[in-house]
Amino acid sequence: MGWARLPAAEPALDAVATGATAAPAATMPAGRAGPATDVVGLGRWRALGFVTPGLVLIGVFLVFPALWTLYIGVTDYRLTGTAARAPQIVGLENYRRALTDPTFYRSMWLTLVFVLGSAVLGQNLLGFFFAYALRPARPAVRRLVEALVLLAWILPSSVVAFLWIAMLDRDGGTVNVLLGQVPGVAWLIEYPMVAIVVFNIWRGTAFSMMLYSAALSGVPPSQLETARLAGASTGQTLRDVILPNIRRYALTNTLLITLWTFNDFTPFLLTAGGPNHRSEVVAAYIYNTAIVGGEMGYSGAISLLVLLVNLLLALVYLRVARVRPA
Amino acid sequence: MADVELRALTKEFPGGVRALDTLDLTVADGEFFALLGPSGCGKTTLLRTIAGLEAPTSGQVRIGDRDVTGLVPGARDVAMVFQDYALFPHMTVLDNIAYPLKIKRQSRPERSGRARGVGANLGLAALMDRRPAALSGGQQQRVALARAVACHPSVFLFDEPLSNLDARLRLEARTFLKRLQRELAVTTIFVTHDQAEALALADRIAVMEAGRIRQVGTPREVFGRPANTFVANFIGSTPMNLLPGVVSGGGVAVAGGTLTPSTITPPTAPGERVIVGVRPEYVSLSTTPVDGALTGEVSIIEHLGAVSLVTVEADGALIGATVPEDREPVPGSRVWLSPAPGRVLIYRESDGELVT
Amino acid sequence: MQQRIERYGRAAATIAVLVTVAATTAGCLGKKTSSDTTKNADAKEFTLSIGVNSIAGGKNASQAEWLSNWVIPKFVEAQKAKGRTAHVTLQPSGASDEDYKSKIALDLKTGSGADIYALDGIWVGEFADAGYIKPIEDLVGKDKADDWEGWAQIPPAVQTNMAYNGKRYGVPLGTDGRVIYFNRKLFAQAGLPADWQPRSWSDVLSAAYRIKAGVPGVIPMQLNAGTAMGEATTMQGILPLLVGAGHQIWADGKWQGNTQALRDALGMYQEIYRNGLGDPVIQQDAKGRDKSFQAFAEGRIAMLLEGDYFWRAVIEPTKGIAKMPDRDQTVGYALIPAKTPGAGIRGQDFVSMSGGSGHVLNPASKYPQQAWELLQFLNSKDATIASVAGSPRLTQRQDVNDEVLKNNPMLLFVSQKVLPLTAYRPGFAVYPRVSQALQQATLDVATGTPAVDAAATYQRTVEPIVGGVGKVASG
Amino acid sequence: MRSTARAVALRVLAYVGLGVGTALFALPLLWLLSTPFDAAPRYAVRPPSEFTLGNFGEIGRNPYAVSSLVNSVVLALGTMVVVVVAAALAAYALSRVRLPGRDALLYALLLLSSVITGTAAMVPIFLLIFQLNLIDTRAGVILVLSGGLLPAAIFLLKDFIDTIPRSYEESARVFGASPLQILRHIVAPVARPGLATIAVWTMVQVWGSFLTPFILLRDPTKQPAAVVVRTLYTEGGSPNLALISSFSLLYSVPVVLMYLFAWGRYGFRFHGGIKS
């Protein structure tokens, strides 16, 4: 997404981080109905009219089911069995259960490893590397590499999952064939987390690459020139000129890919959370409790916990974004 | 064609910032009028309020015989040129110029004929099919002007029309703009922070500060007799000398000397603290002692082309004077400064208003 | 800051209101439908649909084809002869069992969906408890429900597969039995007989050791383990061992907990997977069962415990999903032995497990009588014969089995030798969760946990599921 | 001199990194390109042992394969229209008019939409659609998918519109254009790259979505390709690589084409209006 105009992602973060809003206060009259309430003369009521279709759709088809899910989270509701006929309110029992269940903590831990390894480090660094290294490249080379990276991003998840199943297959997978061992290592079983981390880096680097290449094009050439004239090494230039300039992009990028990766279901298609829950990230855990286990109440509670963790992550990022480097 | 009249116009933003403070102003029909002031003085807000892009908190805007205060911008019969020109990037030059006519529901051939005509007048004939992105800054400015001209408004509103051009182009555009306004004779209000631009273009200038108008007048009046120290400070390419002084006897004690009544109009109350204002252009410099002149040492010399600005330190005060380029004194040497007769202005120190 | 706090306060208030609304609306999570047995009984024209997890060109294609090409047209024709116009449609799907189950649970919950659904026998209990399905007699009246010639042809043990609390909820589609398949060529290389029949678990193990020693590169034994294989682990793994150790998973009001029988069964896993007699990796593969099939067909696995499905649909020489052209010569099958002779349930020397799916009526059907008629038709002798055309299986009907199994020694073997020994899983709603706990225990053992520890963990997992210590046998 | 040598070394390193990285990205994709045309498809990437188009013939024999692709297009286009129109209106208003609680709302919705997946909210969504009498209709699927995608779409689009100079609209306004005219003549065309991005993004999301259409649609002739492709993968037995690879390719081609179209047409590196 947003492989257009990625710098656009920045002002939003900025707006919240500083509590300011993109619309300068100067365009707003003090609650007085006049000819000019805003730049286009939309007026508050018409603006509400514009917002309404979207908000109604979101309200009915997202917020309402979501709140319902949260409600289910305080019941013992199951998809089948007696509890499906007459669900009972069990209060915080589901939360107590989740918070005392080592499998829940394990899935949270695995998710953090997954997010940290594949998104925060993997996609971020590789995306930046591609964006940086491709700048001086010939347009043809640049387009080819970008197209490949993007392709990994836009193909449907079931297809890419199968591509990687084929890559990593124990008996005839490309990796084992290249390593000259058939049957070779059962990658998805022996190294399930490594497999899904590598997979997700492959899958999602495109977004970071796009965002960083947009960000890098915004670094003033004069600053780069200055650094070059001062005899700065590549590392120094990166640290002193480029990073300060793209810092906020990096934060926005990290926030978005963190949230997406946290809730990404695609690893399930590779390992189904296995073997023995060893790659059961939260999205897979919810699927396994809700669909395979039929425990709707419990999975509703888990969803709220996940929401809270996500909220926490988002707030941390916003806080970091607000603190300017000295 | 119409005059523009503002009555007790006040604009208060949420949070209590007063961008316009009970402002009264009349711009005559066909006048080229400049709103001049430092950034944040409310000049752009004033322009936008005239355009209808901002609603005044109280007061009235009249254009011609109409009270337009409650009208939407489109109904005010004004055309505005924005600082960034606001050329629609997805339209050709022709479509841009014709856009106001499209809104006025003119037929396609009619509006493109008219747009072409206006474009040709403004020297854009060869560019009509280009997109704005393919134009130079000067060309973009002309397109924006053409678009405003094409809709034949009774008032033009220009928001910093020249500030996005480089220095050389700006002079050209300035001349062009002035000629255009003369030809069309449409009431024009333009906002600028550049006093030279205002002096060069405008029939009359309103100098603004903090939501108020500090002086309205012709360029000559504003330059020659700034109504207060704010205007005095703001106008002129070299800053006016503003020296603290005390009225004593028949003269004013200033910078270690006394300016005698023969060279200045005497102030009203003896013993009053005043500020003496005199433009460097009106200070003559002598390397030999002159009677009744202020004396000091040359500290800095700045070359301004045909003239040089000499800064002299006289009894702790810095006084500027311009001299022809071939008459520069030696830095560090002692010189004598005498203001030209009738060019010394006395301001009250308490409120900075002109006394005489 | 103050402003922001206010803003969040307002958002919180809005959310609170919405939660209340959701909670009120959600009160109807559990919904009841009343059924009228004579509803639309006389309709001259009616519409019915059948929902199955089979689809042409995909999963279980032959079943989907049988329904749409034989059952539906013939039924419509038969109704026409009676002067009634029937519109029957098939709602096929080709998803994983879990996804299919969720989908039909939602359909049944809202009182919508197809009139007849295909359902795995082990789901009957939980669907019945949820009120999603009802006994046939409640839907069409006791007379109509009992008055079907087919019941006489379906052995009572098979009927229980689609029954719950003593009531028939649906008609089974057939049944199966489990045996140990072995590769005679590999056995010959290890010096084992072509007509091998183990008498005890140690016979099985010693055969495995001989394969391991004599035929390098071959996995001696495939005993399903782990959660990735799901119910296949339970049915083709732990449960056959458990009944071989003398206990059903549920008996006399109690579930098997950390008992000697369970420890014995897990001990067998331990022996196999600790000593390289089986491949623990394949058990954990999301596609492990399919891979084990492939490996057996390619002669890389010597012994494999499976149902007759394996024989007729997997290694079937022409249409199987892992074809073995020389199946009839190469593959032998043996009864599953008890731990020691006579140690099995009911004092048996040999044991097996059986299961199967069937069809149930949707209680919300607008035409319950006609749906029941269609269900009978679907299970009629002619329809059943048509369903096995070209690929014989153990059908629910004895009269059909007698006819179609005549020339099939393997299925005859199952029908005659295995079915008398077999056991069925308990049809309780909690069974699937107990089954998952069992799968987890086998996985623990296969990946190195000692059997006794895995059994203890299992006990702890199962207690809350089945309703407390009192419902679990241990010791 | 040393710094030059180091720079050269770094450059070489960068090229090697790029080369290896690109190869890693290409490898899995090559499978999708070659295997469908291989008469004896395998897991390993290799050029077709014997070129064939026969694998596609097999898809033709699947009664749902072709219709599922059509269904995917219908669902994708339907959702795209709903999302783009609703998101554009909302994002525009949110960008230009200060509504109370705007930013907190946007962030809350974004979080909600990324966390509450179809899995956990499956029951409420099904019951809701059932109550609305939209089970087994494409409209139901489109609405549910739209609801889930809108927050992110609004979020991204608002960012985009925020960068469009307000003077465009003010200028048009002074000329007398009505808000709707401004939207039609100025904002929509200027925001087109952003709209195209959201459109393609929406379609890609819908294209891969499995659970929602699977649960909400009964008639297999209405099911999209995402469901059919899952059928192929979950079918018992060893995977039919011929079928899987060729259908995967057919299933992928439309999204790639959509993407290329949008890229080529709207130049996805657009940087707003004229730089001022």
TrEMBL record, chain B:
Keywords: ATP-binding, Cell membrane, Membrane, Nucleotide-binding, Translocase, Transport. GO terms for cellular component: ATP-binding cassette (ABC) transporter complex, substrate-binding subunit-containing. This is sn-glycerol-3-phosphate import ATP-binding protein UgpC. GO terms for biological process: carbohydrate transport. The lineage of its organism: Bacteria, Bacillati, Actinomycetota, Actinomycetes, Micromonosporales. The keyword Lyase does not apply. SUPFAM superfamilies: MOP-like (SSF50331), P-loop containing nucleoside triphosphate hydrolases (SSF52540). Residues 4-235 form the ABC transporter domain. GO terms for molecular function: ABC-type transporter activity; ATP binding; ATP hydrolysis activity.
Automatic annotation (TrEMBL), chain C:
It holds the Pfam family SBP_bac_1. It comes from the Bacteria. Gene3D superfamilies: Periplasmic binding protein-like II. PROSITE patterns: PROKAR_LIPOPROTEIN. PANTHER family: ARABINOSE-BINDING PROTEIN-RELATED, DIACETYLCHITOBIOSE BINDING PROTEIN DASA. This is Sugar ABC transporter substrate-binding protein. It comes from Planosporangium mesophilum.
